[in-house]
From TrEMBL:
It comes from the Eukaryota. It holds the Pfam family AAA_16. This is Leucine-rich repeat and WD repeat-containing. Residues 267-530 form the AAA+ ATPase domain. Keywords: Repeat, WD repeat. It comes from Sipha flava.
């Protein structure tokens, strides 16, 4: 499948990492006996760089073109094709030229490392950078990976002598490294892929791995004395907060004010963080939750991110899990209460007072405006001793208006404003960008300021545009979100992107990857010329991986106790997507309903 600028190998490795975040992944790696595309080391020492340049002077300019010095790390890095300028008219010719140059460069490096020891070292270095660091270095993932290799001793007769020799050297190096790192049963050699013996061997290895994963999972399941749903909710919330805090934009002033509030024993009022959509409230809240233990090591910290899970998607469900957790902290018991906001409100006030009498406690709730229920009376206006309460809401929203009417303390509100020009310039000048769909290599500084970003969301869009060749910049400050969709459509195709986003927007909690791929494979945009189910599924599957790679900054795994679905990370993007692609919603919803009815 053609996905424009995206390297299919890079997309597959990105998909491997994406899936590995939420589940057990069994990588199956087919090692061909062909030389494949030119393989160059991503990193080259100064010594090797100078050796290559001086030993073959005619190739000096080529080496200097494709490798650039990283002064900070004191080595040379392979440049990515995204770093070279091109146009839509010349892109095909330029890519052919770059491929030929990389082939010449590969031949040059093999000539440089002409001794057996140097050449083996070169091959080992390339292998480690290409595959070893992606899979083998992760010991848990390595135990579950299966490598299928053709028996190179029996099937190299059709190749020319030099190609056969080079193929054999590479495969021997890979085989040697695999036997050191992996269980022997996970390495399968074959001569004919169509034999029953070969198929049975693969089935046996895969079943063995799946059974070991199930047994490992069962060992982790027992949680005697504690509600399993609560534990799963806490795992999901912690996972969401951890990943969100890593994206935090520096908001030193807001963080310092929150820190002073949490450490002020006389602050007996709740603290409200608010700001416009996309201003970075959730990342600030995630950072506050992360640092709360450092600011007060004795405090219990209870955190909820609205809509991060099925049990935080409504006010009632969120308050229910909060009360269960607070009651566990207070008495060590799991108790259930009447399922309504007033009952939970009474229990929260009682439990906070009881816990606060024994130890400090901080309650943090992000994004209350995402709840359909706009009741804010459950939030106490004054707090017991040792209790701190931090919440966030979007400006404008009904929830924020009501909070401003009920909470009288002027110190209770901190506005997360748009970033200043100085902050934007500082972040852009320091922003290190890795091109989308690149396997590594050179990075560049992001200096694009066609339309100045004012919020972290806009900065993310700006960064995404900077990672794509020939990307469109927003024509005005009102078109940041639309720019996301414009650029992805230009790369992957308007009709395919429209169909995929319509499926995301048509469900409340998202769809499983397997469901999305199967549904997309039924669409005419993904039907292949041979019209077979397998090829349509393959086309849809690769598209879905590329789609997630491009939009990785704006999508996240929505986890339940058993499954993980893909959803929009930001409500601003979710609303814009619904507006832009809403015309096909009714057809897609009907199709999804029929799909699930057929599964029953």
């Amino acid at each position: 499948m053609d996905c424009g600028q995206l390297d299919d190998i890079v997309v597959k490795l990105s998909e491997l990492r994406r899936q590995n975040r939420v589940g057990y992944v069994v990588p199956i790696v087919f090692v061909d006996d062909s030389l494949g595309p030119p393989v160059l080391p991503h990193v080259m020492t100064r010594q090797d760089f100078e050796l290559a340049r001086t030993k073959i002077p005619d190739a000096g300019k080529l080496i200097e073109k494709w490798y650039t010095l990283d002064a900070q790390k004191n080595h040379y890095e392979l440049r990515n094709e995204m770093m070279f300028e091109t146009t839509f008219e010349t892109q095909e010719a330029d890519e052919k030229l770059w491929h030929n140059e990389k082939v010449q460069l590969q031949i040059t490096l093999m000539k440089v490392f002409d001794s057996i020891s140097l050449r083996n070292g070169y091959i080992e270095q390339v292998f480690q950078q290409e595959i070893h660091n992606k899979i083998i270095i992760n010991s848990e993932l390595a135990k579950r990976s299966v490598w299928i290799m053709k028996n190179y001793d029996t099937d190299l007769g059709h190749k020319c002598k030099s190609t056969a020799t080079e193929s054999k050297k590479r495969l021997e190096q890979i085989s040697k490294q695999l036997k050191i790192e992996l269980p022997e049963t996970n390495i399968i050699f074959y001569e004919d892929a169509n034999t029953d013996e070969f198929i049975k061997k693969i089935e046996s290895v895969l079943l063995s791995i799946v059974e070991s994963v199930i047994k490992e999972r069962e060992k982790q399941e027992p949680a005697y004395g504690t509600d399993a749903l609560l534990l799963e909710e806490l795992r999901i919330q912690a996972w969401f907060g951890h990943n969100t805090s890593k994206q935090a934009v520096r908001r030193d002033e807001a963080m310092e004010r929150v820190k002073k509030y949490l450490m002020n024993v006389n602050a007996g009022y709740p603290l409200v963080l608010y700001g416009p959509p996309g201003s970075g409230k959730t990342t600030v809240v995630a950072s506050v939750a992360k640092h709360s233990h450092l600011w007060n090591q004795d405090a219990a910290v209870v955190v909820r991110f609205a809509n991060a899970s099925a049990y935080s998607s409504s006010l009632e469900q969120t308050l229910n899990s909060l009360v269960v957790q607070l009651n566990l902290l207070d008495s060590g018991k799991c108790t259930w209460f009447k399922h309504n906001v007033q009952s939970y409100s009474d229990q929260i006030i009682r439990l906070l007072g009881s816990i606060g009498a024994k130890r400090p406690i901080t309650l943090i709730i992000d994004g209350i405006d995402r709840f359909k229920n706009d009741d804010v009376n459950w939030i106490p206006q004054s707090l017991p001793n040792n209790v701190k309460f931090v919440i966030s809401a979007t400006e404008p929203s009904v929830h924020l208006n009501r909070l401003q009417q009920t909470i009288k303390s002027v110190d209770s509100f901190i506005r997360i404003a748009n970033m200043t020009d100085e902050q934007i310039d500082s972040m852009l000048s320091a922003s290190i960008i890795r091109p989308i769909g690149s396997g590594g290599g050179e990075t560049l500084k992001n200096n694009s300021k066609t339309v100045t970003a004012k919020t972290p969301l806009e900065l993310q869009v700006n960064t995404m545009c900077s990672k794509m060749r020939n990307s469109k910049q927003p024509p005005s400050s009102e078109n940041w979100v639309e720019t996301i969709f414009d650029n992805v459509e230009s790369l992957l195709g308007k009709d395919k992107v429209s169909t995929a986003i319509s499926h995301i927007c048509s469900t409340r909690y998202g769809l499983l990857d397997s469901e999305v791929v199967e549904l997309l494979s039924m669409e005419k945009e993904f039907l292949t010329s041979d019209q077979t189910t397998a090829t349509s599924l393959s086309s849809a599957g690769f598209f879905w991986s590329a789609f997630n790679e491009l939009l990785s900054s704006f999508l996240y795994w929505f986890k339940t106790d058993r499954y993980a679905t893909i959803r929009w990370k930001n409500t601003v993007i979710a609303e814009a997507a619904a507006r832009r692609y809403g015309a096909t919603d009714r057809r897609v919803k009907s199709k999804i309903l029929s799909y699930f009815n057929s599964q029953v």
